[in-house]
Write a structure and sequence with these properties.
Blueprint (H helix, E strand, L loop, with lengths): L7 E3 L4 E6 L2 E4 L10 H18 L51 H4 L6 H5 L26 H17 L5 H21 L11 H13 L11 H20 L28 H10 L2 H13 L3 H5 L6 E2 L4 E5 L6 E5 L2 H10 L18 E5 L5 E5 H11 L14 H13 L4 H5 L12 H17 L3
Antiparallel strand pairs: 1-2, 2-3, 4-5, 5-6, 7-8
Helix pairs in contact: 4-5, 5-7, 8-9, 9-11, 9-13
Length: 457
């Protein structure tokens, strides 16, 4: 009787493989061939360990360099906690709240105890069937205790916030990257910690201490204090969300000061006036326009790529919009030269962004690829970097970027009218006044008008 294989033999690779959840895994167990029964059984045991890891139910069977760890070496890492059979893990449900689709009849909905005023204002259940919840709890996280699954749930929740405009894709990608550091820390140092109930204060403390060791340590793994704070904050935000979703009854420890890191005072970094003049003179016509918008309005690449025609009063040159990063309403006045360049290079299509590339595509886009990674296409930054690389520009190895142009303009405003700098940069309201009267904007316009001749436009 032929032996039934659950793995597929890859002739070209001379090893067994398995297709699971859309991914092909090549197993590392060596075999003498397809008929090597002992080799197949060893490969199948490897697959069972790998599948448990992929499903978040076991440790990684491989080292950081990809070498298969012998089974006997992992015996001491068996999970100390596992749900009892009575509370076995249910399948992951879709993240939607169950609402009853069966609409009650008016007679069934009415009750002799229902006050007349409720019916009079239309709060009767028969008139508002969408308010009637089913007996289902509707909680997609109920019963789930695996750390890997709960981390993915939180990231999915954060991604939904980006779709609602409550969070930027960059912030979502940063949360994902920083939380992944913590997940790798657990896999390497606590292979048996699989369920959220196993996460103890000592583990969180050790993670924080280890991250502090990487601050300004020199070498490949060096991080800044700002990166340290983001890594710790991402863990705190995730665990706090688990409490909010009733997955955890309480936090493993008090996290109010967990991510408290005293950041070094940022060093001012910007382009000088002469350098800005040199860059603008040697740039192409389109790149010169991008530089002008950065110096004139304090715009970043994303601000330029998302500028639309209806944001501009083409008679006065006044631009009114919300800044993408902070959501703070900003108001600026275009220089005569900037307005003239915009009219020349504007998109012929009245819909969509005002400026597009020579290929007709947007200058700035953000999207998440099939692997769940953020992909940013930034034509403005690319054009500016190409300018820096040219021999005539002479800034090939310079660390300063396009974003430092807006800081250069802000620095000039700071010298003359420091109280207007925050208004020019459209910083978050914690660092600026909530309301500005027209007089403040008129004063800002007067200062930005002076920059046109200062920078040689």
């Amino acid at each position: 009787m032929p032996y039934l294989h659950k793995l597929t033999w890859a002739t070209h690779a001379k090893r067994w493989r398995k297709r699971y959840r859309g991914v092909t895994y090549y197993l590392k167990t060596s075999c003498r061939g397809k008929k090597d029964r002992q080799g197949y059984e060893a490969a199948f045991r490897e697959w069972e360990r790998l599948k448990a890891f992929v499903d978040g139910l076991g440790p990684n069977p491989y080292t950081e360099t990809g070498v298969l760890i012998p089974e006997e070496h992992l015996a001491s890492f068996a999970p100390a906690y596992a749900p009892s059979p009575a509370t076995s893990l249910p399948p992951i449900q879709a993240t939607t709240i169950a609402i009853s689709r069966k609409l009650p009849t008016p007679l069934a909905a009415k009750s002799p105890d229902l006050p007349a005023w409720i019916e009079s204002v239309g709060l009767d259940a028969g008139l508002n069937p969408e308010l009637i919840a089913s007996n289902d709890s509707g909680n997609p996280y109920e019963g789930e205790r695996r750390i890997s699954a709960l981390a993915d749930f939180w990231l999915a929740h954060r991604h939904k916030q980006t779709e609602r405009g409550e969070l930027s894709l960059k912030q979502w990608a940063e949360d994902k990257t920083k939380l992944e550091v913590f997940r790798k820390f657990l896999r390497v140092n606590y292979a048996g910690v699989v369920f959220i109930d196993q996460l103890e204060p000592s583990i969180l403390n050790r993670y924080r201490d280890l991250q502090w060791n990487f601050v300004d340590c020199g070498g490949e793994f060096q991080i800044s204090k700002a990166t340290l704070k983001k890594r710790l904050d991402s863990v705190a935000k995730w665990l706090t969300w688990l409490v909010d979703q009733n997955i955890l009854k309480e936090l493993p420890k008090d996290l109010r000061t967990y991510g408290r890191v005293k950041l070094d005072k940022p060093k001012p970094l910007f382009w000088t006036v002469d350098e800005c003049k040199s860059l603008a003179t040697k740039a192409s016509k389109r790149t010169r326009l991008y530089i002008a918008l950065a110096l004139n309005l304090g715009y970043t690449q994303k601000d330029i790529g998302t500028l639309e025609a209806d944001m501009i009063d083409w008679d006065t040159g006044i631009v009114i919009r919300d800044r993408h990063k902070t959501g703070v309403p900003s108001k600026g006045k275009l220089w005569h030269s900037t307005l003239k360049m915009l009219q020349k290079h504007r998109n012929s299509d009245p819909k969509g962004p005002l400026l597009v590339g020579t290929n007709g595509l947007p200058l700035y886009t953000e999207k998440v690829n099939d692997k769940g990674n953020l992909i940013v296409n930034d034509s403005v930054r690319l054009a500016f970097n190409q300018l820096k690389q040219t021999k005539k520009a002479g800034f090939k190895e310079d660390p300063r970027s396009f974003k430092h142009l807006r800081k250069s303009a802000a620095n000039e405003i700071e010298k003359a009218r420091p109280e207007l700098t925050e208004l020019f940069l459209a910083h978050a309201e914690a660092g600026m006044k909530r309301h500005y009267v027209s007089q403040h904007f008129e004063e800002l316009f007067a200062e930005t008008d002076k920059l046109e001749s200062l920078y040689g436009f």
